[in-house]
Amino acid sequence: MKHLTRAEFVDLIESSPGLSTERAQHLAHCERCRECAETLRSVRSMATVDEMPEPSPLFWDHFSARVAAQLRSEPAPARAPRWSPVPFATWALAGVVIMLLISTVVWRTTLHAPSPPVPAQMSAPVDLAEMEPVDDLDNDEAWAVVRAATADLAWEDAHEAGISAHPGEVESAALQLNAAERVELERLLDEDMKRNGA
Amino acid sequence: MSTDRTLDRPWPGFRPRHWRVTVTRDRTDSARRDARQLADDRTLVDACLGGSREAFDIIVERHQRQVYQLCYRFAGNHEDASDLAQDVFIRAYRGLHSFKRRSAFSTWLYRIAVNVCLNRVGARSQKWTPLDAADHPDLREERADARILRGERAAAVRAAIARLPKKQRAALILRVYHDLPHDEIAAIVGSSVGAVKANFFHALANLKKLLSTK
Q: With an 8 Å Cβ cutoff, are B86 and A76 in contact?
């Protein structure tokens, strides 16, 4: 069985709560624990012998007067700062205001953030001279045919003749194409987009 | 209502030459002081925080003996113990607003005293005053050799206690000389009851070693 713990030794020599039956049985059979307890008990009683000399009765009056004199130069102790009792409605209102502020900040910084300013490089005027032509229209044979055919055509005449396009006419024309024509149109558009780097 | 009031302020407009007017304080002041003497520590603390310095004077009068005795156990001489005790009360006065009322006021004051003593005494060597027979009237009837032996033993115990580690010394002094229960000692030194008992155990064991090597 385990020897007594330090706390059990202290309880034993001060005979405060006493030991449990099991521990008391151990003590009865363990000479080492008994010796230890006896030593602690004797040291404790030895320490108690040392009585403190009592100062003169006049000392106490002198002491309290000395402390009082010292405290007169001290500022009066202040109470610890406390929260003033604020009504619940005030706290609720403050909470609502804080929530509104937070939601406004979140709204402004995330979903509905204003578009970032255009960098100076992008806003600078484009130098057209440095850009390569997308297509050489002057040397295009098909475009030359169209150009020749329409050289003498006035805009008003073409409009009256129904050559010019009106809104929605491209869509309706595309819908009238058959399947083969649509495939071909798609191929041409893809080719044109690839050529233009789209 | 009190009918035996004396003049508590001068009468500048009406004072015949042959009159000698003395200005005294209302006698209710002394009654108030008597009431405060009976008040508990927390009431006095409240009064003190409300601006009454007199309330703290009563606190000092009430606890000065215990605080001085604790300081003496750490310092070992009257002069240092007196200075330490004064320091304890001044620190308590300054920090009165931090007394949270979770423990007794005396426990809070003991905590300040132990901290002051451990900080100040640990940093310097102790000057133990020899035991004077006049301090112990009951010793006068003892035989001279017995008295000397007793004095020597007490001095050896004090010297041994002074060599104990801080926490063990505090546990021993508060338990043996102030007869405080272990749970209150734990509240004072800021540890668990188990730790206090362990410190007390080691204090006694070390004291035995130190005394046997003498």
A: no
Q: Is B89 exposed, middle or buried (0-12, 13-18, 19+ CB in 10 A)?
A: buried
Interface of B with A in 73-132 (CB under 8 A): 73, 78, 82, 85-86, 89-90, 93-98, 129, 131-132
Give Cβ neighbours of residue B2 (< 8 Å, ≥ 6 apart): B26, B27, B28
CB contact under 8 A, B57 and A74: no
> Could you read off the pLDDT of B169-193 as tens digits, one per residue?
999 999 999 999 999 999 999 999 9
From B148's Cα to the closest Cα of chain A, the distance in A is: 13
* Interchain contact, A67 vs B201, CB within 8 Å: no
ipTM: 0.70
pLDDT string in tens for chain A (198-residue length): 688 889 889 988 887 666 788 888 888 888 999 999 999 999 999 888 777 888 888 999 999 999 999 988 888 777 666 555 566 778 888 889 999 898 888 877 776 666 655 554 544 444 545 555 555 667 777 778 877 877 777 767 766 666 666 677 777 888 888 888 888 888 888 888 888 775
Residues of chain A contacting residue B182, judged by C-beta atoms under 8 Å apart? 10
**Alpha helices, DSSP H only, in chain B?**
28-38, 41-49, 53-75, 78-94, 105-121, 144-162, 166-172, 182-189, 193-212
Rounded CA-CA distance B214/B212 in Å is 5
* C-beta separation of B211 from B177 below 8 A: no
A10: nearest CB among B69, B136, B200: B200
CB distance A30 to A5 below 8 Å: no
Subunit contact B96:A60, Cβ cutoff 8 A: no
User: Which residue type does A166 have?
Assistant: H
A-B contacts at Cβ under 8 angstroms: 109
Shortest CA gap A51–chain B (Å):
8
Angstrom CA distances, B31 to A65, B9, B28, B38, B200, stand at 21, 19, 5, 11, 45
Determine the distance in angstroms separating the CA of B53 from the nearest CA of chain A, rounded to an integer: 8
Number of Cβ within 10 Å of residue B54's Cβ equals: 15
